[in-house]
Amino acid sequence: MAQSNHLIDLVHSRIDEFLETRLPIVTTISSDLTPLVEFSRQFLSGGKRFRALFCYWGWQSVGTGGSTGANGDSDHALTALEPVISAAAALEIFHAAALVHDDIIDNSDTRRGAASAHKLFEGMHGQSGWAGNQVAFGRAAGILLGDLLLGWSDELLDEGLAAATDASAAARARIEFNRMRTEVTVGQYLDIFEERAWFSQPETELFDRALRVIVFKSAKYSVQAPLVIGAALAGAGPDHLDALRAFGLPLGIAFQLRDDLLGVFGDASVTGKPSGDDLREGKRTVLVALARENLTDTARENLDALLGDPLLTEAQIGMLQRAIVDSGAVERTEALIDSNVAEALAALKGSPISGAVTTRLMELAETVTRRAF
């Protein structure tokens, strides 16, 4: 645990250091651009750093840097860690970019208990009394902030790859990062596609289609890709990478299934989002697909009619929550989480991953899938 905490501190420091180098580039153009860096700091200051942790333990799983753990205090130790610290920090900046864009797509007002990026820009417009529509300004500025963060994630990754001693390993890590970026972008498209096209799809396909969204929008980039990027950067061979993929994909699915439950039933003080937010956004999740299978015709029609209404009242949210619970979908989702975690842990048995790293990965599996409501 201490090693993971120290790793998080190093990632925080690397992100801060990187933003400091970008601040003069931006402000030299105009002081009006300062909010772009300030809001970037705000969105990169929080979070659980799961992606950074998976990247680091993917790196450590190879064993090439095992004697240079995150507890090392020497300049040599920090230099040896530079490639993976920068890669882990790049993943966190990529994640921030994805959240900024995701909140715009979903019309979400909050993120981690505070205003989302486009809402911050919207508020800045309103407080300053500028011309034009403040909502349109907020959305446009938010899109550009997400684009800026996306570019910065690439720049920081490149700094880490340049510090790697094995050029071929760095190239493999870049390939994995590029694949992740493509998969999460098309996964986001699939998410918004399913929200709007679900009614034209065969009823028997809705579960599988919702699961496909989980795999490409979240599971791969939240768990599997960070593990593989870290391991590839450390020089892992094909068998080792396959073992991490076999562990990371089902764990990533379980991670998102837990998020889907939190999106419907989560406590706002814990999740940083209003309770039932996924219902207002119209998310066609695995949870919703499972609920529809067992609802009466009337209850299913009511769910379909209300899901996606941004003006849902607390009473309507409560009614939908009760319908989902009564359908048995919550128990079935919990069972899916358990089975995916079991599949992930089984993949570690007999793998080339050391016992010490296996223990850390098992601890992380518990942490990311047992978050409380």
Automatic annotation (TrEMBL):
Keyword Metal-binding assigned: yes
Keyword check for Metal-binding: yes
Which coenzymes or cofactors are required?
Mg(2+)
Supply the alphabetized keyword list: Magnesium, Metal-binding, Transferase
Quote any Pfam family the record assigns. polyprenyl_synt
InterPro entries in UniProt: Isoprenoid_synthase_dom_sf, Polyprenyl_synt, Polyprenyl_synt_CS
The record ties this protein, via CDD domains, to:
Trans_IPPS_HT (cd00685)
- Can you tell me which family this protein belongs to? Belongs to the FPP/GGPP synthase family.
Q: What is this protein called?
A: Polyprenyl synthetase family protein
